[in-house]
């Protein structure tokens, strides 16, 4: 009987090694099962003037959620996403043509957009289809435009969500009514993808939106990121 003790000990040690290795392998496989992140960043400017283009739209294709990232006031964009989701990206802005390209890892995308207008002497930044219609002289009062932003807001950690943030504009200027409201995010978040965005009110008393941000769990991406919410309200004379 005593002679069998070493065999039993070796058997027990073997079992422990198998269990331990299995745990290690599970941890390694879990890490490998995560998507590899790709950092997309750069700037968007007018091809002729070099002026930064704010709120330019960046679409990742193919897309199943129609998510759109936007540039900030300085024309910059920066966000992370799973590499396998990326085939190419399209960049466009109101009044400009569209640029389509395939980014490479680590490359900074310095994009130049050409105005849609054929009249290059005016360098028109507003497309004809989106321009405000001409009005009789008696009604030709300029619209009022008010903007606001939330400042940098932090996402949740990993795949969790942050708390809800809000950004808005109070009462309309005297004699004006809300005509159009624009809301977008710059930074890592994109409404409908890594952010949830919803309008709470849109009246002459108050325009209010709220949003929350999701972090990352992909390999190579920060678990928490920042985004800024922007709101622009165009008021028309009553």
Model description:
The chain is mostly beta strands and 238 residues long. It has two domains: 36-118, Immunoglobulin-like (Sandwich), CATH 2.60.40.1120; 142-238. The chain contains one helix and 14 strands; from the N terminus they run αββββββββββββββ. The protein has one helix at residues 5-33; strands at residues 37-46, 57-61, 68-70, 76-82, 88-92, 99-101, 109-113, 144-149, 153-154, 165-169, 176-187, 195-202, 207-213, 226-237. The strands form four sheets. Strands 3-2-5-6 form a four-stranded antiparallel sheet, with no helix packed on it. Strands 8, 9, 11 and 14 form a four-stranded antiparallel sheet that branches. Strands 4-1-7 form a three-stranded mixed sheet, with no helix packed on it. The longest helix has 29 residues, at 5-33. The termini are far apart.
Could you give the order of strands across the largest sheet? Answer: 3-2-5-6
Mean pLDDT equals 80
Low-confidence stretches: 1-30, 118-132
* Structural class determined from secondary elements: mainly beta
Helix content: 10-25%
N- and C-termini, Cα separation? 102 Å
What is the H/E string? HEEEEEEEEEEEEEE
The rough form would be described as globular
Output the radius of gyration.
26 Å
Q: What is the count of structural domains?
A: 2
Total number of β-strand segments?
14
Question: How many helices in DSSP terms?
Answer: 1
Strand content: 35-45%
Biggest β-sheet, characterized? Answer: 4 strands, antiparallel
